[in-house]
């Protein structure tokens, strides 16, 4: 008999509720759950493709070992002993830091990796740890650590109650929100406009979200810092600050006011390409709104001024009285209180070759390839990856591809033989998402409402398979035995969640048993002001003037005249699509079907200047490499800018993803530059990369 299961989708940050109907182990349908109080029945095409993921014949279902160019099945215990033995031997011969770790984005969508990853990885005691954090979001975390005392205390736009939403470098209609868990964002934008509110989008491209905005302004890639500086300068100069309770918690605001005195709108306008009058108007309209919020995401984080941008965004919300206020930016209080954990740390050590700073125990992924390829003490000789494909997702992927081929040993916890894992010696595949339970530890912390739900497995765990957390436990126990340590006791992930719920801010009404009785999830109410009781800085104040930010302002002054592209040079940006989320979703026919979407977008005026035609094959090059791609004329892109989506480039030999290979495209990260980063954090700068476009010939 058919049975309907209720579950949140794990494929992106929106965590939309699903109603999945099965008969036996066959999936009959996947629909939006109208009784989910958060997503309200909304669904996007990615969720429907969950059945494709489940049924994909190329998804690995047992461990495999690479022998030459062939992959051979291997038993779990044998695999654990092999991996533990090789890593222990390499560390014995070359030191702890000879083994590196890379954690990909999907780890935060599978709670077993979060709860148990360190059961094994912590035993390696290596400083060579990397993750997708330093690809796309490190500035958010560092600014929150500095200002509020915890890397996960990131205020979230109260989109359901704001009157004025200023959005920079974000496209939630395609991404479903990012560091803003916001299912059904299209309806929420309509509701905002219906109540007389205004959505203003700043973006080098007229994106899907910009199309429905009240106003869209083009900006030159990588120059949002100039707009934000000009706006904050205007707020100070015209005394548009508004009193609020958080102002009494601030320290250093006078230093900021003084430091920004020379960054007026007239001086900033030529740098960002937005007229001074428009910059001042944006500041005045924002300050005049009863409830306003400024939010910047990928476009402002993955640029050379990413940390400055996120700092300025926080200050704009703060000085206008919109930080920690309804309709402004607020701090969620999730049932699983992640901000009770360690706050994080910064620059306690640096990378071996380039000296870039660590953040919370991780180095910027921009230096991973050079740490593998540069001889000397501490050179990386082995790598552990989990749910990551850095060859396609990190800067200068060709260089990393080459570096991985030279490793002595590599192991990957992954479902596929992809562009990265093809270099592994052993691949350990976990169960699929529908075969295990789940709790959204991370994304409830970024949600626009306080919500919670526990997701039961939809399908039974296949015989002989292991969940991701069980893989980490198996590796950890094997490593402990080899290194003479006593294996630590193990709690299952759901037990850990239950303990966290009972100790969290909603403990009086929640436990795992309670959540199991509410399969659609529980709405815990709108976000509320809470910063005064939750500040974790040593001073107990909002530290508005981190010295690193004041110092970095001088870099802006020094580079103001260097923002224009050289003759013939264009600036490269990425773009999102609702049917795609990084490289691993391209092996499912229902997500790649339809018109190709991996073309290079270019303004018609730029096509004419370069003597190119719409639909022509062109050579797109940067300092690090070149690709051949089809160019498409588009007036949605600003002149001087070209756009290429990320996650493609599936034509490497040995990749066992046939659908993806049939729609290979090119990798934008064969053009992004590992030397082009935010020097404050080392976060990759994937937007604003200088490129050239030429006819093939």
From TrEMBL:
<dbReference type="InterPro" id="IPR006963">
    <property type="entry name" value="Mopterin_OxRdtase_4Fe-4S_dom"/>
</dbReference>
<dbReference type="InterPro" id="IPR050612">
    <property type="entry name" value="Prok_Mopterin_Oxidored"/>
</dbReference>
<dbReference type="InterPro" id="IPR006656">
    <property type="entry name" value="Mopterin_OxRdtase"/>
</dbReference>
<dbReference type="Pfam" id="PF04879">
    <property type="entry name" value="Molybdop_Fe4S4"/>
</dbReference>
<dbReference type="InterPro" id="IPR006657">
    <property type="entry name" value="MoPterin_dinucl-bd_dom"/>
</dbReference>
<keyword id="KW-0408">Iron</keyword>
<dbReference type="GO" id="GO:0043546">
    <property type="term" value="F:molybdopterin cofactor binding"/>
</dbReference>
<keyword id="KW-0479">Metal-binding</keyword>
<feature type="domain" description="4Fe-4S Mo/W bis-MGD-type">
    <location>
        <begin position="1"/>
        <end position="58"/>
    </location>
</feature>
<dbReference type="Pfam" id="PF01568">
    <property type="entry name" value="Molydop_binding"/>
</dbReference>
<dbReference type="GO" id="GO:0016491">
    <property type="term" value="F:oxidoreductase activity"/>
</dbReference>
<keyword id="KW-0411">Iron-sulfur</keyword>
<protein>
    <submittedName>
        <fullName>Dehydrogenase</fullName>
    </submittedName>
</protein>
<comment type="similarity">
    <text>Belongs to the prokaryotic molybdopterin-containing oxidoreductase family.</text>
</comment>
<dbReference type="InterPro" id="IPR009010">
    <property type="entry name" value="Asp_de-COase-like_dom_sf"/>
</dbReference>
<dbReference type="GO" id="GO:0051536">
    <property type="term" value="F:iron-sulfur cluster binding"/>
</dbReference>
<dbReference type="GO" id="GO:0046872">
    <property type="term" value="F:metal ion binding"/>
</dbReference>
<dbReference type="Pfam" id="PF00384">
    <property type="entry name" value="Molybdopterin"/>
</dbReference>
């Amino acid at each position: 008999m058919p049975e309907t299961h209720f579950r949140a989708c794990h494929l992106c940050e929106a965590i939309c509720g699903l109603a999945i109907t099965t008969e036996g182990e066959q999936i009959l349908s996947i629909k939006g759950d109208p009784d989910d109080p958060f997503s309200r029945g909304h669904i996007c095409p990615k969720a429907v493709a969950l059945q494709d993921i489940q049924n994909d014949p190329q998804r690995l279902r047992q461990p495999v070992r690479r022998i030459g160019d062939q992959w051979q099945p291997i038993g779990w215990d044998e695999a654990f002993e092999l991996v533990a033995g090789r890593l222990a031997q390499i560390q014995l011969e070359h030191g702890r830091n000879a083994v590196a770790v890379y954690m990909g984005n999907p780890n935060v969508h599978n709670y077993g990796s979060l709860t148990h990853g360190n059961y094994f990885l912590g035993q390696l005691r290596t400083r060579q740890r990397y993750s997708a954090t330093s690809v796309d979001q490190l500035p958010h975390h560092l600014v929150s650590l500095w200002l509020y005392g915890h890397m996960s205390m990131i205020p979230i736009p109260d989109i359901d109650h704001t009157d004025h939403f200023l959005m920079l470098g974000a496209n939630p209609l395609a991404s479903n929100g990012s560091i803003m868990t916001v299912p059904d964002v299209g309806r929420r934008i309509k509701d905002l406009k219906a109540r007389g509110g205004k959505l203003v989008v700043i973006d080098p491209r007229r994106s899907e979200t910009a199309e429905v905005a009240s106003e869209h302004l083009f900006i030159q890639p990588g120059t949002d810092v100039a707009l934000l500086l000009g706006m904050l300068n205007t707020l100070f100069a015209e005394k548009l600050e508004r009193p609020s309770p958080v102002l009494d918690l601030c320290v250093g605001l006078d230093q900021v006011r003084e430091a920004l005195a020379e960054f007026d709108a007239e001086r900033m306008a030529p740098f960002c390409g937005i007229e001074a009058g428009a910059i001042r108007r944006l500041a005045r309209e924002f300050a005049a709104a009863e409830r306003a919020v400024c939010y910047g995401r990928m476009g402002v984080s993955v640029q050379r001024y990413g940390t400055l941008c996120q700092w300025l965004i926080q200050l704009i919300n703060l000085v206008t009285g919109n930080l920690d206020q309804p309709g402004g930016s607020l701090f969620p209080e999730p049932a699983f209180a992640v901000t009770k954990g360690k706050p994080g740390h910064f620059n306690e050590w640096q990378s071996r070759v380039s000296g870039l700073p660590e953040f919370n125990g991780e180095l910027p992924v921009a230096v991973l390839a050079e740490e593998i390829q540069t001889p000397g003490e501490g050179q990386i000789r082995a790598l552990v990856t989990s749910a990551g494909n850095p060859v396609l997702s990190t800067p200068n992927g060709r260089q990393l591809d080459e570096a991985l081929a030279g490793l002595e040993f590599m192991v990957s916890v992954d479902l596929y033989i992809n562009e990265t894992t093809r270099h592994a010696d052993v691949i350990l595949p976990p169960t699929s998402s529908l075969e295990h339970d789940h709790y959204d530890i991370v994304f409830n912390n970024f949600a626009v409402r306080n919500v919670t739900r526990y997701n039961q497995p939809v399908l039974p765990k296949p015989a002989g398979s292991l969940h991701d957390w069980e893989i980490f436990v198996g590796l950890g126990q094997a490593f402990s035995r080899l290194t003479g340590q006593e294996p630590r006791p193990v709690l299952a992930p759901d037990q850990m969640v239950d303990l966290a719920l009972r100790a969290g801010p909603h403990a009086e009404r929640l436990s795992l048993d309670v959540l199991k009785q509410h399969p659609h999830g529980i709405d815990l109410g709108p976000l509320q002001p809470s910063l005064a009781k939750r500040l974790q800085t040593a001073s107990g104040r909002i530290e508005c003037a981190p010295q690193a930010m004041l110092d970095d302002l001088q870099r802006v002054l020094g580079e103001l005249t260097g923002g224009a592209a050289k003759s013939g040079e264009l600036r490269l940006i990425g773009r999102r699509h609702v049917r795609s989320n990084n490289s691993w979703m391209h092996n499912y026919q229902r997500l790649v079907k339809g018109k190709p979407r991996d073309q290079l977008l270019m303004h018609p005026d730029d096509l004419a200047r370069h003597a190119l035609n719409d639909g022509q094959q062109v050579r797109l090059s940067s300092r690090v490499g070149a690709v051949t791609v089809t160019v498409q004329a588009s007036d949605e892109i600003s002149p001087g800018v070209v756009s290429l989506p990320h996650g493609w480039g599936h034509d490497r030999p040995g990749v066992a993803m046939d659908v993806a290979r049939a729609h290979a495209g090119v990798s934008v990260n064969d053009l992004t530059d590992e030397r082009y980063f935010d020097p404050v954090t080392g976060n990759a700068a994937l937007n604003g990369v200088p490129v050239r476009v030429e006819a093939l010939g």
